[in-house]
Every structure is written in structure tokens, then in C-alpha cells.
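Reviewers of the previous submission asked for a worked example of the structure-prediction workflow described in the proposal, so we include one complete record here. The input consisted solely of the amino acid sequence. No template or homolog information was supplied to the procedure at any stage.
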Amino acid sequence: MKFFEYEAKDLLRRNGISIPIGYGAYNSEEAEGIARGIGKPVVLKSQVLVSGRGKSGGIRVASDATEARRIASDLIGSTIKGHRVDSLLVEEKLEIVEQLYASVTIDRYARKHVVLASTSGGVDIEEIAQTNPDAILRYWVDPDVGFSIADAVSMLSPFSMNDNDRRKFATVISILYKIALEHDAELVEINPLVRTPSGQLIAADARLVADDNALFRNPIFREKSFRRGEDTPREAEARKQNLAYVDLDGDIGIIGNGAGLVMATIDLVQLFGGRPGNFLDIGGGAQVEIIKRGVILVMSKPEVRVILINILGGITRCDIVAQGIIEGLNESSIKKPIAVRLMGTNEEEGVRILHQAGINTYPNMEEAAAEVLKL
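From that input alone, the workflow returned the following C-alpha cells.
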């Protein structure tokens, strides 16, 4: 789950990391009012869940409130890398002496958190890695030991900075590790972490990506679990209904049980020359209600012309799936042709139920996929 910049910064602030003075704006009048209240040049930052906003024109500086209003009018409603800008973060423009980089992420190969730090902040970490890899320090954290401020100070020792600045930088890094650990973050990043003329370190930008599977133990994220900015309207609706659904750009609806089977079905459709329109996994042991909702959801997508349902019954019962399919078709106001492959637990009963309803079934994936292309 990705977080908007203002959400990530709010979490940093709660944990003691300084952030710029700033507020959210949803229209040009609000942006003008915020800029007037700040009373100095401001930065208007498009709140979209993509990186590289600045290079795409999504971050702009205004010298006064009047200019802030004009820029906000340009940005709100615009599109950045395919994402519509619905809100802005209007912040004070910082005086910058130095730009640093700090992040904590997960090294899946090492099965550990890795802490990254650099004195070359302000550009993409990928650029730093390519142009000056030695400028990035890495520290793999032993989960049995943890990561302290002393560890961070030691990590930063190769950098040329005085003891005071090094300890301030180390404090920020140790807080990032604490946030990552406590909130199951896959990434928590500050780029840049700026040093001002007064010596203060301020998070000028921030990114946060949390593990979806850990939302149940992160109450502060619970409200956000149903309103992800990157979701399509259908994906957002599926999330409310506890359906594992992803929109794709084709015209063949895909429903299956188990992520691996659904992905294999998508691959097979593509191999046969089709274009999958979605991914929908009803999960293991799905009941009638879940199957019904999945059928209705996929039927509702205008681009989908035909639906392939591929079920391999283990704990999932084929007769329950058949009943869910029929109820979904009966309740959907939109009718589209479907092909069903059923195999496994209570297969004969499931096939009988579908045949009575006039729905064709097929003994294997290949035949079902071929029939879908004909339909």
C-alpha cells in the first residue's frame, strides 16, 4: 500500500522528524490561502502515487500567494504519469545548505531490513547508484539485534561531517528503522533530507509503502485500506467487497481460485491470442456470496466481452462455485457469455448445476480458453 507524501510526512512528524510547514489544498483558492498564511515562497506538490513528479512538472515553486493560486489552477485536474492530480501539498520553500538521503527497506534475498544513507540526496536513488555507487552506505540489520542510534553513527562514519551533524543524521535514520519495524513498512524514505542554515534537518519529501498483509495490526492505516489513490474505481469497489481484483487492459474477464491458477489462466489466454481484462482470485474455499459478487463485478466492466472461469476444486467445492455463478448471473443486470472449467471436489454436481442452467463447462483449461476466444 502506497501513501501520499502528506500521509508519509505526518507519520514522520508523529515520530519526531521535522517536516516543512504545509497544508493540503483541493482547489486554487485553498492554495492561495495557505500560501498567504505561510507568508513566504512556497512549493506546490502534486499528491500522486508516482515517483519523479518534479521531472514531470508536478512540483512547482510560487513566490507569493497570487502565483500559488495560478499554479494550483494549472496542477489540479492535470495528469502526472497517468495519475490525475486531485490535491496539492502547499509547503514553505526551505533554505537548503545540503541534501541528504535516508531510507529503510527490505532486502528479500538477505531476509533483513537494509538501511541506506547518502550525502547525495535530491535525485533518484537509482541515479546515485549508477553515477556514484560509493556515495550510498548500506547497513543490513540483524533482526535479533536491531538498529540503534549508535549503529547509525557508526554506519555514517565514512561521511565527512562533524559529530553534531552525524548524530542528527543518525537519529533520523534510527527513527526510520523504528517506523519500518512498527508499521510493517516495505519502504520508508526521505529524499531529500535537507540541512538548513540553522543546522536543522527537515524531511523535504517522503515516501512510505506498507505491507498490505499487516494492515490488521496497524490501526492508523485501517481507514486508508479502502481508499488507495492508485486504485481504479472497480478495484476500490472490489477491495470493499474483500475481492482480490486487479484491472487489466483486455476484453476477456478472468475468474479463478488461487493466485497461481488465475495467473496461469491469464498466461494461457494471452498464449492463445486473447487479452485478459482483469485478475480476480476468489480464494480457497470460497462461498456462494463471494463467487456471486465476483461474477457481478467482472460482468460490470464495460470492456469485458466474455468471461472465463477456471476452478480447480480442493477445499473449494465445485457445486458451491456453480451456485455462486448462477446467482451472480441472475442478479447481474448485464449479461455476457461465459465459459467454465470445473475440476475437483464435487465436480459432477457442479457441472450438472451449470448444465441445467444452460452454461457450458469444459474439462481442461485449454478447451475453455479456446472457447472463450470463439465466444
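The chain has three domains: 21-92, 98-223, 233-374. We consider this example representative of the routine output the project will generate in years two and three.
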